[in-house]
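Dear support,

Our group has been running a series of protein-ligand predictions, and this particular one with 3-isopropylmalic acid is the one our PI (initials K.S.) wants archived with full inputs and outputs. We had some confusion internally about which version of the output was final, so please treat the block below as the authoritative record. The input we submitted was:
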Amino acid sequence: MSNPSILILPGDGIGPEVMTEVRKVITWFGEARGIQFDVSEDLVGGAAYDKHGVPLADATMAKAQEVDAVLLGAVGGPAYDNLDFSVKPERGLLRLRKEMDLYANLRPAQCFDALADFSSLKRDIVAGLDIMILRELTSGVYFGEPRGIFEEGNERVGINTQRYTESEIERAARSAFELAMRRNKKVCSMEKANVMESGILWREVTTRVGQDYPEVELSHMYADNGAMQLVRAPKQFDVILTDNLFGDILSDCAAMLTGSLGMLPSASLGAPMANGRPKAMYEPVHGSAPDIAGQGKANPIACILSFAMALRYSFDMGDEADRLEGAIEKVLADGARTADLLGEEGVDPISTSEMGDAVVAALQAGL
Ligand code: IPM
Ligand code: MG
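Confirmed final output from the archive:
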């Protein structure tokens, strides 16, 4: 059998430097564990625009469709802010999500014990936090038609459309219930059924799907209340199921509970391919952070944890994912901190590459 294939798309800003650290980890798994991957690399976002005039070349899109998993760094930066909307770096990312049909976006928010004091909330509110946001990723207002800026009378009007079909809601909901079955068996679905018809349908469909999972406790919450509850008492949640736009916002909020955006991975999964693996792309939740790019300040952990999610969800190597997550926990417990995690007495920051080296050393020590 051929090795599992991974396409690396480092992208812009800190993307390339955090991805360099992921490559060290991939190399370690090959050498120390005999788990080989066929790794290729290509451009996305501003980097692709610079070379091809588009944020994702068709050939790259085709490659992404063929591999077992895509690992993406980050896209965007000030140099591209004034580009036409159609070629902005973010369009490259959205094209990957849409054309690969990656409808289930898993965004875990876990608080590492060693980092509980970095949260803007009190330690006891976040210590031990372990929630999973399931964000629908291929529909809703991000993609609904009509959209655009139109002339209307003597002024312009900007239009986007929130649109969800029953089947789109259903498949996202199923993913959430399946996840909950492997966790604490609770799903909280968030929408705005008080003001949006799409929210009413969302609530109906999730309730119907929930009947197939009698062991899972399903609750519903308006998304604004959900945002409030996330910062009031986040540990009440297990799996949060929500749409594309609310999920974008709520996941940033949940991310910050854990202390740093530099810690959080994500997986975007679609339907199974012929080999049984889901279509998949893995990326850190953080952005391209152009202000610190190229300075060795970025925290590579979110991107390394994204690779751990790939081990778990694409390659059925949960034990190896545990091993990698355990190594990261160890490194943090030992006091290693990148510049996003400063503030403790007497702690000097280590660089992006030193953090990657520390993770590899912890992996090796754990054999
Ligand atoms: C995210 C990001 C993206 C989104 C941007 C970069 C298009 O904020 O993945 O959360 O809005 O989905
Ligand atoms: Mg976002």
